């Protein structure tokens, strides 16, 4: 038998979510919730009042007097209330949805932003949970309020009608009430199955989204067109959709079968009641008013019970999905965060990797196998090695996106595990290999390197000059205010200077370098392949500028172009997750090992061309 976690992706019972969901709704919109309670009271008592007033009218119809007109007046007023209330309720629910949606989103994103590392974002189950949490977080509180009000209001209506029905025929009243119990049980079971189904189809929905993004996105369009991948991806996307549709169809059919059975039971009870009431009226045991009251009560009880059961089932299903929201809110940090982190001062001595072992998960092979080396204060260390040797992984450990499984990385002797990740990152500037171009203006693309100085245009231009991209940005249609995008436009007219531009790969990389430079005087500068997309002249220029910028700063420079790192104070050669060579360019060349061989290969390529 499968565990609850396997079935619905969550271990908690739906009922434990009621209080947090209601609390979220009250916190988001207390006034709206109070108004909804009042409208629920009014709309649930109105049908009972209408049924009683109709009975009174029918019983007195033979004597037309002022009382009859007064009752008719009340009926008209009630009709008006019943006619307008649904619109008011709809509006109030809309308001509640918006308020809870905003608050839930705020809380969800705050919880995700609290995660210090990267591991959760690489975990498909976490991503599925995040998607369901995003869907349910905003809706569930409002659905639970709706369910609660339906429960209270429904109880009022049902109580009123059942009382009336009991006066006329207590057996029938009991039968109507009893017929609702299997309906409730069946609907609850169905809602649990639906929640489990939504968790089960999560991976297929994620894959479908991935294929559709490839088909519609700009990122893959060149390869998709050139390799003729559209049909292949389209087919994969439809296959995933057909798979999820199949699951949904099976669920809908199951629901249909249950609804037909429940409807038949309910119609049987109503039909039996009708036969009895007609027979009793024929035998003159019931008045016309009694008949009208019986029919209204029977219909009222059945309708109210039906909608009550429906609301409970919907709220139950939403509550099951709401557990994902609660689990994301309560998610544990993916790297251990100490309660009282060691204060991290400005780097004074250096950073030391000591016998660092790391793998991305126990299912993955070791990426680093006992790497040891030092980045001394004020010096530049060049890190080189074959593809997949673990260079970028070392950078990620240095930024504490993950912790080593064995060994340690120390900052002036303080183990990074003892530090606050935010404080550590505040002391680091980096240009990553897989740098970002944000859908923001050119100035903002540089300014986000240090958000507190986002509006300092002078500093932004200085950083752009350092990265050799100032003239290009100045020449854009709106200079530094031009959007760096091809997708989002400021205006309808895509030819206007308001529209965005798409920079070339090398230009984008220089903007990323400017962002790293703009971050300012941090203790450690990491440059992971900062010039991989640049032409030879630009590469030479940027390395000279970065060399100037690095002077006296502690930095880690990664590059496959060994000419760019040979000037580093020392070089570390990584192979298969181990440091295999260390030293200056000259000493490594003399050593005649991996570095000397790689350097020789690159140099010979240039010599032949020369
Ligand atoms: N998020 C991840 N999850 C699992 N494995 C990963 C992840 N990132 C990297 N790896 C694996 O770790 C190994 C080292 O990757 P890394 O990116 O550190 O190498 P690198 O030396 O920077 O390579 P390159 O020169 O190609 O940039 C590779 O085998 C890679 O497949």
Automatic annotation (TrEMBL):
Localization annotation: Cell membrane
Keywords: ATP-binding, Membrane, Nucleotide-binding, Transmembrane, Transmembrane helix
A Pfam cross-reference name: ABC_tran
Transmembrane segments: 68-89, 144-165, 171-190, 258-279
GO MF annotations, alphabetized: ATP binding
Predominant location: membrane
Listed InterPro entries: AAA+_ATPase, ABC1_TM_dom, ABC1_TM_sf, ABC_transporter-like_ATP-bd, ABC_transporter-like_CS, P-loop_NTPase, Type_1_exporter
ABC transmembrane type-1 domain residues: 144-317
Top-rank lineage group of the source organism: Bacteria
Membrane topology: Multi-pass membrane protein
Domain ABC transporter, residue spans: 351-601
Protein name: ABC transporter ATP-binding protein
Source organism per UniProt: Planomonospora corallina
Lineage of the organism: Bacteria, Bacillati, Actinomycetota, Actinomycetes, Streptosporangiales
């Amino acid at each position: 038998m499968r565990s609850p976690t396997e079935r619905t992706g969550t271990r908690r019972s739906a009922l434990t979510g009621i209080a947090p969901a209601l609390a979220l709704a009250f916190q988001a919109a207390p006034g709206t919730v109070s108004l909804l309670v009042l409208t629920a009271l009014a709309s649930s008592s109105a049908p009972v009042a209408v049924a009683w007033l109709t009975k009174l009218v029918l019983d007195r119809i033979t004597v037309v007097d002022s009382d009859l007109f007064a009752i008719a007046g009340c009926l008209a007023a009630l009709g008006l209330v019943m006619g307008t209330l649904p619109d008011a309720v709809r509006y109030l629910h809309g308001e509640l949805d918006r308020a809870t949606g905003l608050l839930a989103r705020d809380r969800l994103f705050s919880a995700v932003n609290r995660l210090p590392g990267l591991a959760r974002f690489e975990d498909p189950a976490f991503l599925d949970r995040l998607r369901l949490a995003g869907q349910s977080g905003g809706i569930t509180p409002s659905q639970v309020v709706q369910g609660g009000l339906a429960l209270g209001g429904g109880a009022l209506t049902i109580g009123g009608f059942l009382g009336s029905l009991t006066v006329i025929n207590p057996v029938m009243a009991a039968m109507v009430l009893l017929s609702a119990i299997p309906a409730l049980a069946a609907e609850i079971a169905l809602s649990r199955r639906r929640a489990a189904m939504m968790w089960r189809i999560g991976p297929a929905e994620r894959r479908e989204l991935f294929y559709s993004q490839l088909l519609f996105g700009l990122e893959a369009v060149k390869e998709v067109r050139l390799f003729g991948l559209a049909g292949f991806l389209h087919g994969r996307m439809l296959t995933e959709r057909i798979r999820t549709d199949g699951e949904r169809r099976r669920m809908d059919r199951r629901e249909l079968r249950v609804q037909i059975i429940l409807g038949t039971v309910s119609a049987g009870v109503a039909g039996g009641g009708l036969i009895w009431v007609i027979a009793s009226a024929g035998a003159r045991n019931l008045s016309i008013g009694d008949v009208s009251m019986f029919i209204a009560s029977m219909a009222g009880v059945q309708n109210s019970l039906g909608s009550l059961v429906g609301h409970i089932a919907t709220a139950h299903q939403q509550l099951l999905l709401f557990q994902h929201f609660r689990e994301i809110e309560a998610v544990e940090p993916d790297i251990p965060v100490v309660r009282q982190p060691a204060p991290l001062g400005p780097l004074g001595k250096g950073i030391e990797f000591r016998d660092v072992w790391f793998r991305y998960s126990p299912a993955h092979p070791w990426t680093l196998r006992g790497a040891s080396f030092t980045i001394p204060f004020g010096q530049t260390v060049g890190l080189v090695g074959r593809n997949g040797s673990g260079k970028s992984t070392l950078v990620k450990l240095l930024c504490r996106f993950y912790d080593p499984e064995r060994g340690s990385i120390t900052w002036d002797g303080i183990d990074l595990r003892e530090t606050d990740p935010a404080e550590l990152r505040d002391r680091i500037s980096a240009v990553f290999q897989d740098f970002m171009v944000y859908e923001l203006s050119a100035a903002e693309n540089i300014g986000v390197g240090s958000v507190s100085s986002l509006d300092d245009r002078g500093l932004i231009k200085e950083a752009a000059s350092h990265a050799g991209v100032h003239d290009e940005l100045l020449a854009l249609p709106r200079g530094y205010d031009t959007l760096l995008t091809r997708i989002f436009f400021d205006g309808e007219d895509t030819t206007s200077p308001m529209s965005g531009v798409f920079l070339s790969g090398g230009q984008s990389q220089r903007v990323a370098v400017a962002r790293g430079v703009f971050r300012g005087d941090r203790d450690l500068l990491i440059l992971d392949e900062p010039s991989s997309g640049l032409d030879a002249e630009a590469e030479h220029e940027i390395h000279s500028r970065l060399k100037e910028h690095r002077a006296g700063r502690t930095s880690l420079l990664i590059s496959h172009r060994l000419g760019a790192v040979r000037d580093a104070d020392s070089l570390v050669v990584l192979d298969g997750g181990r440091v295999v060579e260390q030293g200056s360019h000259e000493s490594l060349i003399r050593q005649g090992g991996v570095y000397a061989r790689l350097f020789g290969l690159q140099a010979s390529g240039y010599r032949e061309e020369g």
